[in-house]
Amino acid sequence: MAWIYLSVAIVFEICFALGTNATRGFTRLWPSVFTLLAAAGGIFTLSLALRTLDVGVGYTIWTGIGSIGTVVLGALIYKERITPAKLGSFAAIIGGVLLLKLAAGV
Hey, where are the domains in the chain? Predict the structure, then answer.
């Protein structure tokens, strides 16, 4: 169940990051409300995942996969560029997540 909570937390993390850009410095009401709710949802579901997972594993996977999702969706939604350096970083993050998952014994 911890991995399901962590997956939901990652979705909230991506929504939080993308929503933050849409708030225009928290000057727009509805994007700001969305962003704050996504942040709260992400932290709450991460805390549920961390009941079982080690904090180092759970938090690192949450931020790592959340970062990849944010970059990919940022490219799709905000037309940001995905460079070769970003692709290399994705590979490093995914490799690190896989190693952490193996180290956690799951």
Answer: 2-103
Global model pTM greater than 0.70 = yes
Spatial distance between the Cα atoms of 67 and 91, rounded to a whole number of angstroms: 12
* Structure tokens, 84: 């070769």
Token pair, residue 63, equals 């931020």
Q: What is the pLDDT of residues 7-41, one digit of tens each?
A: 999 999 999 999 999 999 999 999 999 999 999 99
Measured between alpha carbons, how far is 42 from 53 in angstroms, rounded to an integer? 15
Alpha carbons 39 and 11: distance in angstroms, whole number: 10
How deeply is 99 buried, as exposed, middle or buried, from its count of CB atoms within 10 A (0-12, 13-18, 19+)? exposed
Residues 6+ apart with CB under 8 A from 86: 71
